[in-house]
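Consider the tokenized backbone below.
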């Protein structure tokens, strides 16, 4: 491995110890040791998360908030402790502000359907960046179509950065919501969400931050961002699939109508009229995903036990190493070159379709994502139907980067 000296000095993070916590990484794919570089799509799970889910079903399984027996009490206690763990993790001032959802997609839909249907009027505007994931575009298009409001894209420049001046000039009293991702899944750009929150608030608008790609890379602090809503997916932060959260300011959540109706979200039900539960339960109709909420809390415990500064430095070193190799790789063009970015490298190879590259890399044990990354508008802007995306996590190694480029070299030889 010929990694540059600068990388060696910066990265003292014990990646071998961390890798030992992720059993899935110890396997061969198509006869090669797995190189997992699809962390933007979903992250792998440490043994601690797998064990927490297994333990819940083996020892504590019961429904929550409603049983008159020991197991139900135990399940309720763990479920609510998980909520508190997540609230602390994102620096939420009040755990009632954490609503369990299936993930970021459901969280955005909840705000669009509940807040949006109540508050949007004909002529109102919702601003989203041109590099949003479809899940932060389509829910707004759906509610705006119903309410006679419009969804308008905030311009993104050729490096993949939001044009803040353009954003500033779009803000007027008809803008009611700004919905923007903290980190772009397609390009890796870290967006200036705190600055955008300040500008949105000055203009009288609210701001929702899609944090799906952020929490796996650093500590999220909703108070420091000063946003109004923040959405997360558990599976992108080393937790299980099917669980995530919406954080919202208590006063906003309290004023919003429920979205889904059913058990748990009510205070009392009668044919004369139904009254609703307090937050967060008002937004949690039906039996929740108890085991995976507990699994997600285990992921947070795991993350808190890591040397996060070391992990951040390690990811940065991996990215820099990959970018150095990319610069020397003939015909490789990076898509998204923001200075502020996470360890994501999106690229195209001249004359070769991204899907073909993905397939040939997989044959060599290297897992990447190819396609439009559910971000078609930004792909259209770059004149592409897709890219190859290598997204690194703290358990990746410099050898993984070497393997990626060796596999790309072979793919190119084969295809050209
Ligand atoms: N937002 C961003 C930036 C994403 O990367 C993703 C998933 O890739 C989502 C939202 C949707 O997340 P989920 O499918 O977990 O709801």
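A designed sequence for it:
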């Amino acid at each position: 491995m010929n990694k540059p000296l600068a990388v060696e000095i910066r990265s003292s993070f014990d990646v071998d110890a961390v890798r030992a916590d992720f059993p899935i990484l110890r396997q061969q794919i198509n006869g090669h040791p797995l190189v997992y570089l699809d962390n933007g799509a979903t992250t792998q799970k440490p043994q601690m998360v797998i064990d927490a889910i297994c333990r819940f079903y083996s020892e504590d399984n019961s429904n929550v908030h409603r049983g008159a027996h020991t197991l139900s009490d135990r399940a309720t206690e763990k479920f609510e402790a998980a909520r508190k763990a997540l609230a602390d993790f994102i620096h939420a001032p009040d755990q009632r502000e954490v609503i369990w959802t299936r993930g970021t997609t459901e969280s955005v839909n909840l705000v669009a359907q509940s807040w949006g249907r109540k508050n949007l009027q004909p002529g109102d505007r919702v601003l989203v960046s041109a590099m949003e994931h479809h899940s932060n575009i389509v829910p707004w298009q759906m509610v705006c179509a119903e309410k006679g409001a419009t969804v308008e894209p905030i311009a993104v420049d050729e490096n993949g950065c939001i044009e803040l001046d353009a954003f500033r000039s779009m803000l007027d009293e008809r803008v009611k919501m700004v919905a923007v991702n903290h980190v772009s899944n397609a390009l890796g750009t870290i967006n200036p969400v705190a600055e955008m929150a300040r500008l949105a608030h000055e203009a009288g608008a609210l701001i929702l931050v899609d944090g799906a790609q952020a929490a796996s890379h650093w500590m999220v602090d909703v108070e420091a961002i000063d946003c109004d809503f923040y959405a997360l997916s558990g599976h992108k932060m080393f937790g299980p699939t099917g669980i995530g959260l919406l954080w919202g300011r208590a006063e906003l959540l309290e004023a919003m109508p429920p979205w889904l109706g059913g058990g748990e979200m009510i205070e009392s039900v009668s044919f004369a009229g139904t009254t609703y539960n307090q937050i967060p339960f008002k937004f949690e109709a039906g039996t929740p995903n108890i085991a995976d909420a507990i699994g997600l809390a285990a992921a947070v415990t795991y993350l808190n036990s890591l040397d996060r500064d070391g992990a951040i430095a390690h990811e940065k070193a991996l990215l820099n190493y990959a970018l150095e190799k990319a610069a020397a790789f003939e015909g490789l063009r990076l898509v998204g070159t923001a200075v502020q970015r996470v360890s994501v490298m999106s690229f195209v190879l001249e004359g070769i379709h991204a899907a073909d590259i993905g397939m040939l890399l997989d044959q060599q044990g290297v897992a990447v994502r190819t396609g439009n990354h559910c971000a078609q508008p930004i792909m259209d802007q770059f004149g592409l139907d897709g890219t190859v995306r290598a997204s690194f996590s703290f358990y990746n190694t410099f050898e993984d980067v070497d393997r990626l480029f060796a596999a790309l070299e072979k793919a190119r030889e084969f295809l050209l």
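The chain has two domains: 4-42+307-415, 50-304.
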